[in-house]
Design a protein that fits this description.
Elements: H1 2-45, H2 62-80, H3 90-111, H4 146-155
Length: 156
């Protein structure tokens, strides 16, 4: 009987320790979520771009105006991206960035209300980090592979 009571006491201690560990883990998860929410809030509040039409921009087309303002947004984003460093998963970071791109697009459209109804305007693509982000294909030189280098040395 004494052995049974001792074993039962150890089981209860183990269960209590496990419950405390679960409580600590749950508290850590809640703390992490709160920290991420605070970072997302600070990132959203940091958006402070003042949009001004470009000098000589009266004759610019919609896509040129968007490109002009999108470059300013990208520079802002590069300077503020560190505010999202601890936000995980990556899809959550992308969601926040997409919301800011939409906020910026709305601000650009508000700056040029007479151009908003134009069918030529195409909304900016979702923010993916792809080289075509600004709607313009960027030339990125390809890195030669070992096979390409070997072929070049064989033929020339």
């Amino acid at each position: 009987m004494k052995l049974y009571l001792q074993e039962r006491a150890e089981q209860l201690e183990t269960a209590a320790e496990f419950a405390r560990t679960q409580d600590r883990a749950a508290a850590a998860v809640e703390t992490k979520k709160a920290r991420q929410a605070e970072q997302i809030k600070r990132y959203g509040e940091a958006y402070n771009l003042v949009l001004t039409p470009p000098a000589g921009g009266a004759g610019m087309m919609r896509h040129e105006l968007w490109k002009y303002h999108f470059h300013a947004f990208m520079a802002w984003e590069i300077n503020h991206d560190h505010l999202l460093d601890a936000v995980r998963p990556w899809s959550e970071r992308q969601r926040v960035r997409n919301e800011d791109v939409e906020k910026h697009r709305a601000a650009v459209e508000a700056l040029y209300p007479n151009l908003t109804a134009s069918p030529q305007f195409s909304a900016p693509p979702a923010h993916t980090g792809h080289p075509t982000e600004a709607g313009v294909l960027l030339e990125i030189p390809a890195c030669p592979t070992h096979r390409d280098q070997r072929r070049a040395s064989e033929h020339g």
